[in-house]
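Follow-up to my post from last week.
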Amino acid sequence: MSLSPRFTLTVGILATLCLAAVIHILVVLSIPRNVQHSAYDNIATYGTDRKFNLLPDVKRGQEALPDLDPAMKHATCRFQLADGPVLFDASIPVSFWSIGLFNAAGEAVYSLNNRTAGAERLSMLVLTTQQLSILRENPPENLEDLIVIETPEPISGFALLRAFVPHSSKADEVDLALRAARCGTI
Amino acid sequence: MSETSLKPRLTSGETDWYENELPRVIRPYRSHPLRTLTAIALVLVLASLLGISSAYLVIEREQPLDAVTIGPWQAYPKAGTAEADPYSVAIYTRGAVIPLASGEGLALVARQDSNGHQLDPTCVYRIAGQTPSARLWTLTAVNGRGDLVETLPGRVHVVSQNILRAPDGTFEIAAAAAPHSGNWLPLAAGASASDGLRFVLRLYDAPVTTGAALDGVSMPVIERTGCP
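User reply:
Got it. Predicted complex:
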């Protein structure tokens, strides 16, 4: 059996298009798994894990991470919940600050700002469900005052703390507050 | 269907049994391995080229597909969440971009003015109107790749707390490379049109961080007032 040239051509074009669609989808889906420098990796260059590291000021040519606001100062902390719960503690004397928790893939897990935190001081505990049940058996006295964020899996991730600098005269004060911010064990 | 066309002519013996007079469908098939192989290789190469280049173009445009558009402004409220579409995930992870999470605020990007023209860093723009309610907002001018630029006074942004407003709460900002009176958003000094320009409006602690809440909010207009 042989096919007419026009039929062969149609089948060929259809096959090409279907295969192209499959390849397109595979390429798009494989990009997140094959990026060389994710935000999670980039942050590691600014200091050790489980510690807030101040990022350099957002200025031309020395942006630590893309798409940061030049009106803000930023500090990041990388953590792995497998190494134990993480306590975030900071007191930043400015009119606006916010913190975002992201997993290693860069997806937001939790976020809050100084109004939704309900207090001037940020004190937030991130841990897995299992770690929380262990902690409940012998709770620290300030557990009630903490914002507790439970994750089902022991995730690796990072926190990005943003603090608004209303005026350059406040910059040093914000720097100090961000340096003093804690990110570590209870 | 006529009888004669289906049968080989009796006069031509068995030697020319694959004569072309047989209808195509029942003509005996002679394989051409080289031709088949070439065809398959061609299909594979073309499909790979098409698939990879289309994926590259979509990702390189750096505009997630699920944008919420309000006038010239675009927001991607789902970016950086577990519900983001695969294209946004690819774009954001490839650029190592950390988005504003919903509890922090919302970023809106303008690549065009209100008339639909591409923004040009050599022109003068008037950004006027109101923003959705937010405790704090900043407006930043970046180039077409999203990088910060060199400006005359050194700053590249204006902050809601420091701008002059009309008695009704509206504001007017002049975006230009040369100094302007009133609210001035400095643009790149000595830029050429090919550098591109984007305005990024970041609303902090805004109730409008979800896509649905963005419908019908008033956003500032971007008007081109002059070009060299």
